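TL;DR need structure tokens for one chain.
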Amino acid sequence: MKKIFTLILSLIALTLTASAQIVTTSPAILQESSKNVVLTYHADSPLGNNGLKGVTASDPVYAHIGVVTNKSNGSWKYAPTWGDNSAKYKLNYAGPNTWTLNLGDMRTYFGMTDATEHIQKVALVFRNGTMTKEGKTAAGGDIFVEVHPEGFQMQFTTNAQSTVIGKATSMTFTAVTSQAASITISVNGTSIASGTSKTSLSGTYNFNKTGSYTVTAVAKTSAATITKTINVAYPGASTKGTYPGGVPKMGAVKNSDGSVTFCLAAPGKNSVVLVPSWDDYSVLDKNVMKYQDYNGQRYFFTTVTGLDNNKDYMYYYIVDAQYKVGDPYAHLVLDCYSDRWLDSSIWPSMPKYPYDRFDDVVLAVYNGSRDGNYKFSDFTIPSHDNLVIYEMLFRDFTGTDGEANGEGTIRKAIQKLPYLVSLGVNAVELMPVMEFNGNNSWGYNTNFYMALDKAYGSPDDLKEFVEKCHKAGIAVILDIVFNQSDGLHPWYQMYPIESNPFYNKTAPHAYSVLNDWKQENTLVRQQWKDAIKYWMTAYNVDGFRFDLVKGLGTSYGSNTDAYNSSRVTVMKDLHSAIKAVKPNGIHINENLAGAQEENEMAKDGQLNWANINNNSCQYAMGYASQSSLARFLSSSDSRDAFSTIAYAESHDEERMGYKQITYGTGTAKTDLAVRMKRLGQVAVQMLMTPGPKMIWQFGELGADQTTKNATGNDTDPKTVIWNYLDNADRKALHDTYEALCNLRKDNPELFGAKGSFMQSGVNMDNIATPRILRVTNGNKEIIAFINPRLTTAQYNISATSTKLTKDNAKLVCFSKGLTPTLTGSGNSLSVRMPGNSYAVYATTSVQAGVDDITADDNTATAKAYGMVGEIVIEGTYDNVAVYNMSGVAMPSLQVPAGLYIVNIDGNVTKVVVR
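>> reply
TL;DR here they are.
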């Protein structure tokens, strides 16, 4: 049974063994043919999460149990439905924190009838009867009990909780065999115990000198010999040294001579050992790292020579002989808890986790060429004051239509870039792509800030996505989470929370999520700035949206929402890090604070989110109360002009479409056509208002699946809805978005700081009053007429003193089923419109998109899109010809900026190349 978990870890110590096991078995060596099998669950095992520790017989414990077989491809089989409280799954209370489950014959217990299918592991999650408590591994994962092959077998264990020690330690080793044998146990070749005709033998050894030890058990019968080993390491202490060049640099840093220096910041620690794949993951004295105390912090480092620049090398650190951790500065990690479930098609050549060796530590991956292997083109970031951002979650953006399977990837998103080009957005904001817990997430549970999560694809996939976005004139913004991390971050694992120099035991603000960073630690802020620099250089991204900025202050009073100068200081510091790489880089805050604080950030060149979801939903549902949409304009509520990114929907807010069908009034609830028209009216009022805006993916299709559950945000996969484009009403809504986004992109002087904006009725909590929006610059003008009434009766909507006249007007977009006609004379115009309708007109001097020369051919299998410096053909075709507006044939699809005629198998369109 494949399960995905969000991991909130307590401290993870080194390899725990034998007596610390969560589940022990009788017989000790479990085989498929074993009879009278009994499993014993130790609820207080240090290997477990202690979720059922202290539970007594009054609160029965049940096993959710199955098996992994040679035919299950690593997944569970023969498991009951979750929550099945049948007697066969109920454990017997055997004493404090000890429970037993009688399986008897395992094949019979699990109902296995295929003689060619064999058990490899028993898989378990324990729970109480009400499913309010669960017993899992310390990492929150499933518990697996090995089932040995048939025949003569041996199990070799130690009573030590760790096989890496920092002081002299005595350990006992035990060998158990499935049949009587001659058994010896030796340490580095010296026998410490031996016996004949034994099924069990133990020996004790005192490790009192530093070094590496191999403890070996050999069991012999007349027919077979089995040898098993346990490695024990007693590394020497770290000694003082000086980082090459004198200033420590965290992570794996390639030096000019080809060597690589590995460095981990670990204040208050005494010893760190590098454990690398090139030394077969052995704990060796040569890899004991030196330390340097610098600017009040302690750094451990070691320099390695002879690494192949083009090869993947895995490694981890052992800190104070107690904690096994990855590298917080790793640019790629292998996650022992999640990688086994990744579909190999996502990244076929992905480095593999060495599950045959161990499965209890996240590995960092070093490859000297990975970050410098991509040639990016030059790109000019769009003006911040006219951004139209498309917020995207890779996971749900692509996949099988009509299914919620979370199979979206970067490569699939690349295939959809022509759609975004056609839509007319000029920026994409990716929900967090940094390595997060599990494989199925929104990404706000970051563990490693400089590693791409492999659930979406490879580093080269993301680099190609950025490059192709840039060629299409689209900036790429990363959502990043500095308020908190999840529990696999090395700095979280290395310390008890009470004395952790990197994390607060209790958040000092009211927005505590997961594990709260101690921001006054200079290493924390340095990590953030280094992450900004890394993504902007290695991946060429154009900026960041900072999540939950209200938690990014260094000091707080009693009211987190009150003005906080320390937040302003922190965000200015992060903005400086962006500008150091790209002076025009995009900085977006999800602060949602007061005007004073946000205006101070705006004066530094930062943008702030403006949440207009409630009023947008009210309007879309047909309610007059709170239906004013004036806040789509930054300056409407004392914010500096063009300083806010206003949106009707975001990943954090409920879908307007869902609220329409759930809470709407009249036809705004029951009639799909009306619902889409009202969503179109919201789009017009948002996109016709100057200043930067944001669209949450599929909002342009009228997405109506809820984003909430009983506890808040529903982060489960959502249904992929590309098939919504097949519905005429939803396609009409899409076409409105497309027309308006392209109108903004092609006429930036109207929607940026140089344009003039007027509105009527938009600032009212009223759906009986017509709404008019006008943007003007020079001889260009665009006017939107909106009738917000729910009635079908027709009304005249008038505008006066316009530059638009009947003679110089062209229709940009209008609601489905409407045939609008301008009446009046001179610069006094009227449009007669029914309720729920809208029409947008522009003077002929306004560039209003490029229409196809011929009507859409539903049989066409290819479509042309203009990118930066080239024309892209999506789909299959036999012949294509490109001509400039003088009729001259172009020799290739790589063409200068301009307007072109493209003939694809007889279907002719106009395309703009930028």
